[in-house]
Write a structure and sequence with these properties.
231 residues, three-stranded mixed sheet, single chain, alpha/beta, 9 strands
């Protein structure tokens, strides 16, 4: 079946920085482009990490302790700088959590949730940056029109994958919830249809109202000998 890929959703014009980019320049880029993080690259465009607003704030806080806690220069302590002077490479989170363009969008969404990140740099086989996909981009999966979901259930699941007729069952889709209603030939086809439908991009839930003409769920295939003959 066809699934939406990361490459279909990613932004290919990516704002990025080098490891040597100063803190101030990183902060300016985040503000100018209204983004919360960006990839950090080496000189060959390979993704080494990601630097976010929280990374910058955390590093700046570490370099600037609360008032009253600065070391006393007269007692041999080093004075803290009046402003942040670190680079993107010193503040970034590394290694970066990345994804390839041919990964499914659903797989990328699961990766984001598992790793607790808000964006994934998209890389080629050499780990070079080719795009970026964010949580906002992946929300598109759940905004897929009901009419398009129904079309995919009929064309991709019923016809192409299961080899059934387009009218084998009645398909209704409302707000991403798919209702399957009708009578299939065999009982074993019912869980297959439900599972394949639930895996389609944009499907929130499946409500099956299915019966079958033949209950083959208890049937076992005949045992075959080593020569391939039924026993």
């Amino acid at each position: 079946m066809k699934h939406i890929k990361v490459g279909d959703l990613m932004t290919d014009e990516v704002v990025s920085v080098l490891t040597s980019t100063p803190f101030k320049d990183v902060a300016k880029l985040l503000a100018q482009h209204d983004i919360s993080g960006l990839p950090v690259l080496d000189d060959d465009d390979r993704v080494l990490g990601v630097v976010s607003e929280s990374d910058l704030i955390g590093r700046a806080a570490a370099d600037h302790p609360p008032v009253g806690e600065e070391p006393d220069a007269e007692q041999g302590g080093a004075a803290f700088p009046s402003e942040a002077t670190f680079t993107a490479g010193e503040a970034m989170s590394a290694p970066a959590v990345t994804v390839h363009g041919d990964e499914t969008a659903a797989g990328a969404a699961r990766l984001m949730a598992r790793r607790g990140v808000e964006r994934l740099p998209v890389v080629d086989d050499g780990d070079r940056l080719v795009g970026i996909v964010t949580r906002r981009d992946l929300l598109w999966l759940f905004l897929r029109p009901d009419s398009e979901i129904r079309q995919r259930v009929v064309a991709d699941v019923l016809v192409d994958t299961m080899g059934l007729g387009a009218d084998a069952v009645t398909v209704h889709v409302v707000d991403g919830i798919v209702t399957l209603e009708g009578r299939l030939e065999r009982q074993s086809q019912v869980p297959v249809l439900i599972r394949l439908t639930s895996q389609l991009d944009g499907v929130v839930a499946v409500a099956p109202r299915l019966t079958a003409r033949i209950d083959d769920s208890q049937l076992t295939p005949p045992h075959r000998s080593a020569l391939g003959m039924s026993l």
